[in-house]
Amino acid sequence: MYVLIVLENLGMSFGERWLFKNVNLQINQGDRIGLVGKNGTGKTTLLKLIAGELEPTEGQIHRSSNIEIHRQEQIHDSDMLAGELLKITSDSQELPQKERLRRSLLNSLGFK
């Protein structure tokens, strides 16, 4: 078991508002992790902390020196993308070009 990331007593606040406190987590090579929660509960903030884009209010983050962290930014206008996908797929003219665009949009959303 190779340890990639360790969070020790991690806490993050913005002013008086704490998103989370006392988070302890170890991520090992091969682990698959999902973050689930309501909007505003700190999922993206936790990922930014792990990636080193933010500094925690309290606690420590230890990262293996042998890893590179890459993070996909959120796409905030998913309704526009969904509408564009529907428009592309509903018009079958120029299919090769539209197929490439459809695949490109899906790829940007993380679909392979």
Automatic annotation (TrEMBL):
GO-annotated molecular function: ATP binding; ATP hydrolysis activity
Superkingdom of origin organism: Bacteria
Keyword Nucleotide-binding among UniProt keywords: yes
Keyword ATP-binding among UniProt keywords: yes
Keywords, comma-separated and alphabetical: ATP-binding, Nucleotide-binding, Repeat
InterPro entries assigned: ABC_transporter-like_ATP-bd (IPR003439), ABCF (IPR050611), P-loop_NTPase (IPR027417)
Domain spans labelled ABC transporter: 20-89
Coiled-coil ranges (or none): none
Name this polypeptide is given: ATP-binding cassette domain-containing protein
